[in-house]
Design goal:
Strands 1-2-3 form a 3-stranded antiparallel sheet. The protein has one domain: Rubrerythrin, domain 2. The chain contains 1 helix and 3 strands. It is globular.
């Protein structure tokens, strides 16, 4: 079990996947923060805001996801 902090609201939450010891093991996976409901993606072993991450590589994607 790991307890990362959300990059949007900074609150910690638990991820329980058997055998998982770090975020980098699930590179590219998406998940929702249970506190702020933000859509997150795992990139470089860190949680990032999904929409902002896509906007940085493809400016046609809106940074707020709207």
């Amino acid at each position: 079990m790991i307890s990362p902090n959300c990059c949007n609201c900074s609150k910690s939450f638990k991820i329980l996947i058997p055998g998982m010891s770090e975020l980098a093991e699930f590179e590219g996976a998406t998940l929702d923060c249970p506190h702020c409901d933000g859509l997150l993606i795992i990139v470089g072993g860190e949680l990032r805001d999904f929409h902002q991450h896509l906007n940085a590589s493809e400016d046609r994607w809106p940074a707020d996801g709207a």
